[in-house]
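Thread: "does anyone have the structure for this chain?"

Original post by V.I.:
We have the sequence but no experimental structure in hand. Need at least a predicted one for the grant figures.
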Amino acid sequence: MPAKVVVIGSLNMDLVTRASRLPRAGETLIGQTFSTVPGGKGANQAVASARLGASVAMVGCIGTDAYGSQLRDALLVEGIDCQAVSTVGGSSGVALIVVDDSSQNAIVIVAGSNGELTPASLRTCDAVLQAADVIICQLEVPMETVGYALKRGRELGKTVILNPAPASGPLPADWYASIDYLIPNESEASALSGVAVDSLDSAKVAATALIQAGAGKVIITLGAQGALFADGKSFEHLVAPKVKAVDTTAAGDTFVGGFAAALAAGQSEAEAIRFGQVAAALSVTRAGAQPSIPTLHDVQGFVPA
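Reply from O.Q.:
Generated one for you, tokens below.
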């Protein structure tokens, strides 16, 4: 059986519009297209891990609205175990996304039912966590829930990954000791470390600060510039595959899910990072969040430009 990846996090319906550029403050733009697409960082990472070879279980909350059933169905189609996806009152989480002609995006998230995922919720599905090989968390559910999940993962001896997104400041100091792999992007690494990450050298400074804070290992994703891996002893810069980007939505989630799937399958850290990079590169050549995430067959068939 494939290794088990458990994702604890958000499920959102993405409301996506494309426009020639992102609007300025107070400005109204005419959009080009509109679509509703299942998303949420947690669900995206679960789908990525599943499509890329792992056996996956999702832990999260959905609302009683139409979006809730659609979000659950989107996971079930991927073969993801949804026994720990609870239906709570009110609306499901949504993300309002604008994508411009250069494939950059701006996103506003409304937590909705994601805010109802509590430590008590996790205690009721502890058997799911116990069955995991790798546990992935993000920051689109309540902070106390993330903190509980990280510490419970450490108690159970699981490999614990935190994708600190979205991050607006430092993490609680007592979290770091529970994190095996901390995977921020440039802006998140800046928020966590207080170091302005705008180059490979500054990324090394930020990664060092995060390891000194207690994180086991750090991977800072640098977009088209690749990724920096730091383990407290050395650094490795892994160059990203070159592709023509269409939409960067869910690229980071695809990387995290791909990295986790490869790591759980026994690949080395460098191999798992490269695998995640190829998956993320393929995802930006397609529009949407979950629709853009490639399969294992896609990654195995990738030919660099």
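V.I.: this helps a lot. The longest helix spans residues 269-283.
O.Q.: and The first strand starts at residue 4 and ends at 8.
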